[in-house]
Design goal:
Blueprint lengths: L2 H17 L9 H13 L5 E2 L5 E4 L7 E6 L4 E7 L5 E6 L11 E5 L5 E8 L20 E5 L6 H6 L7 E4 L4 E2 L4 E4 L2 H20 L7 E6 L18 E5 L2 E2 L11 E7 L2 E2 L2 H13 L4 E5 L6 H7 L5 E9 L6 E4 H16 L1
Parallel strand pairs: 3-12, 3-13, 13-18, 14-18, 15-17
Antiparallel strand pairs: 1-2, 2-12, 4-5, 4-9, 6-7, 6-9, 7-8, 10-11, 11-19, 15-16, 15-18
């Protein structure tokens, strides 16, 4: 199977599978177990850190490199139970409350039960509340209403729902004939799916790597400390494979691979960024070089933890980040081709 066919078939399939596994930061055990099983089935020997990150050596010798993507997502948690049987939430990760209004969700109890619900404005009916447009959206004006017959805190208690239970947001995945992939949590399951596909490609094709390469799937990126541990001590370089930003003052689109020169944490390593740019040019890939004004990555957490490494950041362009996101097969393809060339050149 040609690399282009691998991307169109395996990569999109892997991304959709990941998006359908609920994994807000702190509730990632199911997706970690899925990845462990996946990697073992294709005859790797993955390792899981105490924090839950999944690490796997996919081959090569010398000058070790880590390619990291995070499998945790935005989400919420039960903050309190209201007297009317509705739920006040607290957010996990940074997103504006209007991005979840009218979105369906699941509540995961610590006793193993799952219930469906919806994030609604506390005054949602346009025929009743005239100021609906002007209401500020936050965790006081948006609540979770369960698809259950509940009217009191006791009703909620009987369902075994309690404070501290996790709430996952439904992904609503769509893959169009024109190549657009829409879903929540493409940050960062699009790139995690790319790394899964690279692992398959290297194994199935017997690809010889130009250095030792680890893949790392982290579990706490959305809350800032995903990459601060679990890095093998001999690693000299790490690249966060995350999402590329799309918006004003940026040149990236969903159909490009974005190479980040600087974000909120400062500039990325000069040689790593330059090498990625030159390789993208050589391969004639659709790419952008951009600066992200409000962005942090796993590899910056690694640096702050004291690791002495070179660092970089790239990923497919993702529109509407931290909302209902969108990317394109061309951006996924360019990202995967750039990464594969980087480790086998």
């Amino acid at each position: 199977m040609l690399l282009t066919d691998v991307i169109k078939k395996s990569c999109v399939k892997n991304i959709i599978t990941l998006c359908n596994i609920p994994s807000p930061s702190g509730y990632t055990h199911n997706i970690c177990q899925f990845l462990m099983n996946f990697l073992k089935e294709i005859e790797y020997q993955p390792y899981q850190t105490n924090k839950g990150s999944v690490l796997v050596d996919i081959g090569g010798e010398g000058n070790p490199l880590v390619l990291a993507a995070h499998i945790d997502t935005l989400g919420a948690m039960v903050r309190s139970i209201k007297q009317n049987g509705r739920i006040r939430y607290t957010s996990i990760g940074g997103f504006p409350a209007n991005n979840i209004e009218n979105e369906t969700c699941k509540i995961h109890t610590r006793t193993g039960k799952t219930y469906e619900g919806t994030f609604y404005l506390t005054t949602p009916a346009a025929h009743v509340y005239k100021d609906i447009n002007g209401i500020k959206r936050d965790d006081e004006t948006i609540e979770v209403i369960l698809d259950e017959d509940v009217e009191t805190p006791k009703d909620i208690e009987n369902l075994e729902i309690q404070v501290g239970d996790f709430i996952s947001i439904e992904p609503r995945i769509k893959f169009s004939e024109s190549g657009y992939l829409k879903s929540r949590h493409l940050d960062d399951k699009a790139s995690a799916g790319i790394l899964m596909t690279i692992a398959e490609y290297v194994k199935n094709k017997g690809v010889k790597l130009n250095r030792k390469v680890y893949l790392l799937f982290t579990t706490y990126e959305e809350v800032g400390h995903g990459g601060c541990s679990g890095i093998p001590t001999e690693v000299t370089e790490m690249i966060s494979v995350d999402m590329g930003c799309v918006g004003d003052d940026l040149t990236c689109s969903e159909r490009k691979v974005s190479i980040c020169a600087k974000d909120s944490g400062g500039p990325y390593d000069y040689s790593v960024v330059t090498n990625l740019i030159e390789l993208a040019k050589k391969l004639a890939l659709p790419y952008a070089i951009d600066i992200y004004p409000f962005y942090g990555s796993d590899v910056e957490a690694t640096l702050r933890a004291g690791y002495d490494i070179k660092h970089g950041l790239l990923g497919p362009g993702v529109f509407a980040s931290h909302g209902y996101e969108r990317t394109h097969i061309d951006g996924l393809s360019a990202t995967m081709k750039l990464l594969i060339a980087y480790i086998i050149q």
